[in-house]
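Exercise 4. Each item below gives a protein and its sequence. For each, produce the structure-token representation.

Item: 10732_t:CDS:1 (Ambispora gerdemannii).
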Amino acid sequence: MSNTTHTFITEPTKDIIVTLLQEILELYKKGCDHWEPDRKILNRVREHYRSYQGQINEQSIYNSLSQIVAEDNTPAHINLQAFLTRWGFGTIPDIKKAFQLFHHSAVLGDPVAQSELGYFYNNELGITRNREMAHKWYSQSAKQGYPLGQSNLAYWYLCGGNKVAAGEKSNGKKAVYWYLKAADAGLASAEARLGLLFQKGIGTMKDKHEALRYYRKAVVQKNENARIGLEWMMMH
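Answer:
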């Protein structure tokens, strides 16, 4: 008879993790801004678990998720563990481990992880800055139709990431191309950025009508940058 001790996850823990995972994936799929979703997700996670205090703690949740990741190796669960690892929910914050987890998920072909990985490379989070690698992972995410990946790739072109990687200046036309893709999917930050690009004539001809249209679309989604841009245009 085997003496192996098995660790079982209680049903309440399973239900909580599944609920959290669905919430996180929903937020990611909406293509929210990179920073804002993290705060919202973390707040939602903590608020969700507030009613479970005394029944289950953060560490047991994280450990249960780690066990699930080890067993099924699916990108959705890996991404959630990476997120919790980065922000220290149930564990010590560990940006390098978060990078490794996102890298694993990105290699499996997950567009959310690919976008995150590009961001980590571009901003030197848990890894030495490498703009070529940032472009690689942003591109893979964008080509799979993930709005945040498309927006990140657009920003990479707009701010001259390719100047470092390929000896070129910023590429406004490519930035507009990818922002349009992200905006078509309803990403508010991309709509706001397009408003600015059409307003200034960056990567495209100046077009007041289009600038106002995209600003208004983003304002409906309560994007603050779009509100400021729209108010400025209405006053001038």
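Check: The radius of gyration is 20 Å.
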